[in-house]
Amino acid sequence: MILRIALVVGLCLLLVVGIATAQNPQKEKAAVASAEKWLATVDKGKYLDSWQEAAGYFKNAVTKEQWEQSMLSFRKPLGRLVSRKVQSTLYMTSLPGAPDGKYVVITFETAFENKASAVETVTPMLEKDGKWRVSGYFIK
Asked: How far, in Å, CA of 47 to CA of 52, rounded?
């Protein structure tokens, strides 16, 4: 139940059945940098800090307590990060269940101490202040 609640944003945003726009390398590069910085916070086990650094959309969908509990239940057992490499990026302006905006859906090939092969999907969105912040996260 906690997984469903905490990762609802990520699950909704994973459905990339939206309107893809022309690729924008500069926007994608900025979004990837933001996602990697946010992931570094998660990797350090600073789950409440990662919630605080997330997009407003994310924070409206998941409480701090729900986020922390889901990360303790599902991310922490994976152990320390071994490697992470960008697999793909997709700039989009529309995602199912999310308001129209500017998003980059990023998939990472990731290896953890206790899971040799995983795919992380991180979806930063461009907020009104001009900063990219994570609006969805999912590990599979």
From this structure: 9
125 closest CA partner among 99, 95, 102, 96: 102
- Closest by CA to 57, choosing from 109, 102, 19, is 102
Encoded tokens for 136: 């969805």
Q: Which of 49, 55, 82, 76 is nearest to 139 (CA)?
A: 76
DSSP symbol at 13: H
Which of these, 4, 9, 17, lies nearest to 92 by C-alpha position?
A: 17
Q: At 111, which helix (H) or strand (E)?
A: strand 103-112
pTM for this entry: 0.82
| pLDDT category of residue 7 using cuts at 50, 70 and 90 | very low
